[in-house]
Protein backbone atom coordinates (compact mmCIF):
# COMPACT_ATOMS: atom_id res chain seq x y z
CA UNK A 1 0.00 0.00 0.00
CA UNK A 2 1.37 3.48 -0.84
CA UNK A 3 2.11 5.75 2.11
CA UNK A 4 -0.81 7.91 3.22
CA UNK A 5 -1.18 11.11 5.25
CA UNK A 6 -4.51 11.08 7.03
CA UNK A 7 -6.08 13.93 9.02
CA UNK A 8 -8.94 13.32 11.45
CA UNK A 9 -11.08 16.30 12.42
CA UNK A 10 -14.49 17.13 13.83
CA UNK A 11 -16.63 19.20 16.15
CA UNK A 12 -15.88 18.90 19.85
CA UNK A 13 -17.45 15.88 21.53
CA UNK A 14 -18.06 13.77 18.42
CA UNK A 15 -15.59 11.05 19.44
CA UNK A 16 -12.84 12.14 17.07
CA UNK A 17 -9.94 10.87 19.18
CA UNK A 18 -11.60 7.50 19.79
CA UNK A 19 -12.12 7.11 16.02
CA UNK A 20 -8.50 8.15 15.40
CA UNK A 21 -7.31 5.47 17.79
CA UNK A 22 -9.47 2.78 16.20
CA UNK A 23 -8.32 3.70 12.68
CA UNK A 24 -4.66 3.74 13.74
CA UNK A 25 -5.03 0.30 15.34
CA UNK A 26 -6.73 -1.08 12.23
CA UNK A 27 -3.85 -0.03 10.00
CA UNK A 28 -1.35 -1.66 12.38
CA UNK A 29 -3.39 -4.87 12.28
CA UNK A 30 -2.98 -4.78 8.49
CA UNK A 31 0.78 -4.82 8.95
CA UNK A 32 1.32 -1.10 8.35
CA UNK A 33 3.81 1.07 10.20
CA UNK A 34 1.76 3.92 11.69
CA UNK A 35 2.85 7.23 13.18
CA UNK A 36 0.00 8.96 15.05
CA UNK A 37 0.42 12.67 15.79
CA UNK A 38 -1.67 14.26 18.54
CA UNK A 39 -2.16 17.97 17.82
CA UNK A 40 -4.74 18.62 20.53
CA UNK A 41 -3.63 21.18 23.11
CA UNK A 42 -5.21 18.81 25.65
CA UNK A 43 -3.67 15.58 24.28
CA UNK A 44 -5.52 12.30 24.88
CA UNK A 45 -4.73 10.15 21.84
CA UNK A 46 -2.23 8.15 23.89
CA UNK A 47 -5.08 6.92 26.08
CA UNK A 48 -6.91 5.61 23.00
CA UNK A 49 -3.73 3.79 21.97
CA UNK A 50 -3.36 1.97 25.29
CA UNK A 51 -1.01 4.25 27.25
CA UNK A 52 -1.74 5.18 30.84
CA UNK A 53 -2.45 8.80 31.73
CA UNK A 54 1.03 9.17 33.21
CA UNK A 55 2.63 7.68 30.08
CA UNK A 56 0.55 9.94 27.84
CA UNK A 57 1.59 13.03 29.77
CA UNK A 58 5.25 11.93 29.63
CA UNK A 59 5.34 11.89 25.81
CA UNK A 60 7.69 14.77 24.90
CA UNK A 61 6.27 17.59 22.83
CA UNK A 62 7.81 18.20 19.42
CA UNK A 63 9.97 21.37 19.49
CA UNK A 64 8.04 24.40 18.32
CA UNK A 65 11.11 25.87 16.65
CA UNK A 66 11.70 23.01 14.21
CA UNK A 67 10.10 23.14 10.78
CA UNK A 68 10.72 19.92 8.90
CA UNK A 69 11.65 20.40 5.27
CA UNK A 70 13.21 23.81 5.85
CA UNK A 71 16.63 22.64 4.75
CA UNK A 72 17.95 22.08 8.27
CA UNK A 73 19.57 18.94 9.62
CA UNK A 74 16.46 17.79 11.50
CA UNK A 75 14.33 15.38 9.49
CA UNK A 76 10.94 13.88 10.17
CA UNK A 77 12.54 10.47 10.74
CA UNK A 78 14.89 11.97 13.30
CA UNK A 79 12.01 13.67 15.10
CA UNK A 80 10.13 10.36 15.23
CA UNK A 81 13.17 8.56 16.63
CA UNK A 82 13.81 11.21 19.28
CA UNK A 83 10.29 12.21 20.28
CA UNK A 84 8.11 9.26 19.31
CA UNK A 85 6.82 6.75 21.83
CA UNK A 86 5.66 3.23 21.04
CA UNK A 87 2.14 2.40 22.22
CA UNK A 88 0.53 -0.91 23.25
CA UNK A 89 -1.78 -0.59 20.23
CA UNK A 90 1.20 -0.51 17.85
CA UNK A 91 1.37 3.04 16.41
CA UNK A 92 4.24 5.34 17.30
CA UNK A 93 2.80 8.38 19.08
CA UNK A 94 4.03 11.95 18.66
CA UNK A 95 2.73 14.89 20.68
CA UNK A 96 2.84 18.14 18.74
CA UNK A 97 1.08 20.54 21.09
CA UNK A 98 0.41 20.76 24.80
CA UNK A 99 -0.87 23.70 26.83
CA UNK A 100 0.50 23.26 30.34
CA UNK A 101 0.36 26.82 31.66
CA UNK A 102 -1.79 29.89 31.31
CA UNK A 103 -0.53 32.73 29.15
CA UNK A 104 2.08 30.58 27.41
CA UNK A 105 1.37 31.99 23.95
CA UNK A 106 -0.09 30.52 20.79
CA UNK A 107 0.49 27.05 19.41
CA UNK A 108 1.55 28.24 15.94
CA UNK A 109 4.95 26.57 16.10
CA UNK A 110 3.47 23.16 16.83
CA UNK A 111 1.05 23.44 13.91
CA UNK A 112 3.88 24.51 11.60
CA UNK A 113 5.96 21.52 12.69
CA UNK A 114 3.11 19.13 11.88
CA UNK A 115 2.59 20.77 8.48
CA UNK A 116 6.31 20.37 7.79
CA UNK A 117 6.28 16.71 8.80
CA UNK A 118 3.37 16.01 6.45
CA UNK A 119 5.20 17.78 3.63
CA UNK A 120 8.40 15.83 4.25
CA UNK A 121 8.39 12.31 2.78
CA UNK A 122 8.58 9.55 5.42
CA UNK A 123 10.05 6.72 3.40
CA UNK A 124 9.56 3.98 6.00
CA UNK A 125 6.20 5.10 7.40
CA UNK A 126 3.09 3.65 5.77
CA UNK A 127 0.47 5.78 7.52
CA UNK A 128 0.88 9.20 9.16
CA UNK A 129 -2.34 9.91 11.06
CA UNK A 130 -2.98 13.34 12.57
CA UNK A 131 -5.61 13.73 15.29
CA UNK A 132 -6.46 17.43 15.09
CA UNK A 133 -7.90 19.69 17.76
CA UNK A 134 -11.67 20.09 17.59
CA UNK A 135 -13.10 22.82 15.39
CA UNK A 136 -11.97 24.63 12.26
CA UNK A 137 -9.13 26.88 13.39
CA UNK A 138 -6.35 24.55 12.24
CA UNK A 139 -7.72 24.71 8.68
CA UNK A 140 -7.72 28.50 8.69
CA UNK A 141 -4.07 28.91 9.70
CA UNK A 142 -1.62 30.38 7.23
CA UNK A 143 -0.63 27.45 5.04
CA UNK A 144 -3.09 25.11 6.80
CA UNK A 145 -1.85 22.51 9.29
CA UNK A 146 -3.26 19.72 7.13
CA UNK A 147 -2.45 21.24 3.74
CA UNK A 148 -0.34 18.20 2.79
CA UNK A 149 -2.85 15.57 3.92
CA UNK A 150 -3.99 13.04 1.33
CA UNK A 151 -7.33 12.32 2.99
CA UNK A 152 -9.40 14.17 5.58
CA UNK A 153 -11.83 12.21 7.75
CA UNK A 154 -14.52 14.42 9.29
CA UNK A 155 -16.16 12.72 12.28
CA UNK A 156 -19.81 13.60 12.95
CA UNK A 157 -22.46 12.66 15.47
CA UNK A 158 -26.15 12.51 14.49
CA UNK A 159 -26.94 16.20 15.01
CA UNK A 160 -27.42 19.01 12.50
CA UNK A 161 -24.80 21.16 14.23
CA UNK A 162 -22.22 18.41 13.78
CA UNK A 163 -23.10 17.96 10.11
CA UNK A 164 -22.94 21.74 9.62
CA UNK A 165 -19.42 21.74 11.06
CA UNK A 166 -18.50 18.88 8.72
CA UNK A 167 -19.83 20.86 5.76
CA UNK A 168 -17.79 23.91 6.69
CA UNK A 169 -14.74 21.70 7.22
CA UNK A 170 -15.14 20.16 3.76
CA UNK A 171 -15.29 23.58 2.13
CA UNK A 172 -12.07 24.70 3.84
CA UNK A 173 -10.38 21.41 2.91
CA UNK A 174 -11.26 22.02 -0.73
CA UNK A 175 -9.70 25.50 -0.52
CA UNK A 176 -6.51 23.99 0.92
CA UNK A 177 -6.36 21.49 -1.94
CA UNK A 178 -6.77 18.35 0.18
CA UNK A 179 -7.67 15.73 -2.46
CA UNK A 180 -10.22 13.67 -0.52
CA UNK A 181 -12.65 14.49 2.30
CA UNK A 182 -14.82 11.73 3.76
CA UNK A 183 -17.40 11.89 6.53
CA UNK A 184 -17.56 9.32 9.33
CA UNK A 185 -20.82 9.01 11.25
CA UNK A 186 -20.28 8.17 14.91
CA UNK A 187 -22.43 7.25 17.93
CA UNK A 188 -25.35 5.95 15.86
CA UNK A 189 -27.93 4.37 18.18
CA UNK A 190 -30.65 3.51 15.66
CA UNK A 191 -31.46 3.02 12.00
CA UNK A 192 -32.84 6.55 12.07
CA UNK A 193 -29.41 7.86 13.06
CA UNK A 194 -27.79 5.99 10.18
CA UNK A 195 -30.39 7.36 7.77
CA UNK A 196 -29.81 10.87 9.13
CA UNK A 197 -26.11 10.61 8.33
CA UNK A 198 -26.72 9.29 4.83
CA UNK A 199 -29.38 11.87 3.97
CA UNK A 200 -27.93 15.04 5.47
CA UNK A 201 -24.33 14.42 4.47
CA UNK A 202 -25.37 13.57 0.92
CA UNK A 203 -27.48 16.73 0.78
CA UNK A 204 -24.39 18.71 1.75
CA UNK A 205 -22.14 17.05 -0.82
CA UNK A 206 -20.15 14.87 1.59
CA UNK A 207 -19.35 11.20 0.96
CA UNK A 208 -20.09 8.93 3.93
CA UNK A 209 -17.32 6.41 4.53
CA UNK A 210 -19.00 4.49 7.36
CA UNK A 211 -21.34 4.75 10.32
CA UNK A 212 -19.96 3.67 13.68
CA UNK A 213 -22.52 2.44 16.23
CA UNK A 214 -22.64 3.85 19.73
CA UNK A 215 -21.43 1.23 22.18
CA UNK A 216 -21.77 1.65 25.95
CA UNK A 217 -18.74 -0.57 26.55
CA UNK A 218 -16.49 1.97 24.82
CA UNK A 219 -17.94 4.76 26.96
CA UNK A 220 -17.48 2.67 30.10
CA UNK A 221 -13.88 1.87 29.15
CA UNK A 222 -13.20 5.54 28.62
CA UNK A 223 -14.65 6.46 32.02
CA UNK A 224 -12.68 3.71 33.76
CA UNK A 225 -9.41 4.26 31.94
CA UNK A 226 -9.46 0.77 30.39
CA UNK A 227 -8.02 -0.13 26.99
CA UNK A 228 -10.77 0.58 24.46
CA UNK A 229 -9.48 -2.15 22.15
CA UNK A 230 -10.30 -4.81 24.74
CA UNK A 231 -14.02 -4.05 24.49
CA UNK A 232 -14.37 -3.11 20.82
CA UNK A 233 -17.46 -4.96 19.47
CA UNK A 234 -17.47 -6.69 16.11
CA UNK A 235 -19.90 -4.16 14.59
CA UNK A 236 -17.54 -1.31 15.43
CA UNK A 237 -14.55 -3.20 14.04
CA UNK A 238 -16.43 -3.84 10.80
CA UNK A 239 -17.31 -0.14 10.48
CA UNK A 240 -13.66 0.85 10.94
CA UNK A 241 -12.71 -1.58 8.18
CA UNK A 242 -15.24 0.22 5.97
CA UNK A 243 -13.41 3.48 6.66
CA UNK A 244 -10.10 1.98 5.55
CA UNK A 245 -11.72 0.56 2.43
CA UNK A 246 -13.32 3.93 1.58
CA UNK A 247 -9.97 5.69 2.03
CA UNK A 248 -8.28 3.22 -0.31
CA UNK A 249 -11.05 3.44 -2.92
CA UNK A 250 -11.16 7.24 -3.02
CA UNK A 251 -7.40 7.56 -3.15
CA UNK A 252 -7.30 5.18 -6.09
CA UNK A 253 -10.03 7.16 -7.82
CA UNK A 254 -8.14 10.45 -7.56
CA UNK A 255 -4.82 8.89 -8.48
Salient structural properties:
10 helices; alpha/beta; 42% helix; eight-stranded mixed beta sheet; 255 residues; 8 strands; globular; Rossmann fold; single chain
Q: What can you see in these coordinates?
A:
By secondary structure, the protein is an alpha/beta fold. It has a single domain (4-254), classed as P-loop containing nucleotide triphosphate hydrolases (Rossmann fold). It has ten helices and eight strands. The protein has helices at 16-29, 45-48, 53-58, 76-83, 108-119, 137-140, 160-176, 191-203, 216-224, 234-254; strands at 4-10, 34-38, 85-86, 92-95, 127-131, 151-156, 180-188, 207-213. An eight-stranded mixed sheet has the order 3-4-2-5-1-6-7-8, sandwiched between helices. Strand 3 and strand 4 form a beta hairpin. Helix 1 packs across helix 10 (234-254). The longest helix has 21 residues, at 234-254. It is globular and about 45 Å long. It starts with a strand and ends with a helix. Residues 99-107 have low confidence and may be disordered.
Amino acid sequence: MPSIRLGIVGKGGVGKTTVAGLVARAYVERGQRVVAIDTDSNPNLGLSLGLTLAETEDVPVLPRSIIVGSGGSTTADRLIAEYGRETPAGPTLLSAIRVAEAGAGCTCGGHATVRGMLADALSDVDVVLVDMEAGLEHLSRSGGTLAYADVLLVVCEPTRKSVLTATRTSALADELGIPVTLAVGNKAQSAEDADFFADTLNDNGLSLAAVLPFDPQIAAADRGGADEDAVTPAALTAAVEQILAAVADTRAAVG
